[in-house]
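Predict the 3D structure for this chain.
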Amino acid sequence: MESIIATYILFVGLIIVISIFIKYGFDRIGLPALLGYFALGIIAKYLDNTFSFLNQEGIEIIEFLADLGIIALLLKIGLESKLSRLIKLLPKASIIWVGDVLISGAVGFLTSYYLIGWEIIPSLFVATAFTATSVGISANVWDEMGAIKSDTGQTLLDVAEMDDISGILLMGILFSIAPVLLGEGAGLPGVQILTTVGVFLLKLTLFGLICVLFSRFIGEQLIETLNKLHGGKSRILVVVGIGLMAAAISTLLGFSFAIGAFLIGVLLSSNPSKVKMDSSFEALYALFVPFFFINIGMNVDLSALFSIEMSLLLLIAAAFIGKFLGAGLGTWVSLGLSYSTVIGLSMIPRAEIFLIIMKRGLDMGEWAVTAEMFTYAVVISTLSVIIVPLLLKNILNKREVTDGGKH
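Done. Predicted structure below.
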């Protein structure tokens, strides 16, 4: 038994060390480290298939660490949110956001359901996942080109933040109604769906209210008090502990733990000590988040990975075209034609929330997301985070784009 545990500990330790090299190497060549984590997970799966060094307990350990990675990821996204600024700029960004979500989701559903011929539940998972974006990929390029602080760059961040919020909300609704669509529960399907969504939104509202009250009247004082008890060294540990509890409570209420982590992160983002937490959180983020992406790689269907099917090509086209048209058309209406291409292109990359939705569907069963669909999602994510930055750099080199949006 001790030798088995030692094997697991050795494996986890190797992953941590290798992930540091991956992060360093991919940063040097200008590619997102998540691509290296995908590859590491795929290699680990191949080695496990060959040598069987991981049994069910070992896989569960990796999945547990991956779940902690999701919580850390969503908590960080929440902590980096600027809710007050988002509310202030909502009218301007909402036009782009509405078109972005509706069109990208519709293109994903129509492609999956009508062109590929998948069932309605898998098609809904694709549609919901396609509404999400990964603005960090594009924002890095904007920042490198000195355009992130322009009006256009800030609008991009606002729309992407709204994408995060709507994506997480739609994810929660989908997870709640998917069993009803499968046929579980009594009563008419339409009534069941409306009832399920109503109960979900009511519970989410109550949970959100509790989180608001906690963050306003207890959260800051609790963070500072416990931090002082530990000699001023525990601020980030308290925040992480609160995030874990919020994630667990949201799960017990029937939500995804991603919702709880994100929501409490957003509310704690207004904490005056947030700036002091950023550097401390990076170490915990770097420890756990790679396990999420590595676990993604370990769930890839190796047989489907190297086969090019028409369904994969259709999904790739839908993923790129849906976001480009959705965000681009909204930008055309809101800001003008000259900015529509760059905003539409910037919203294409898919990573964190996109993969969380598809991974949760895979965990629910083949009726929700098949192994082949999940592998396609990884391929789409990989292509989007490689191709889009290369195209963006060429566009942002044009003077009219970067100068036209500056303060």
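Residues 402-407 have pLDDT under 50 and may be disordered.
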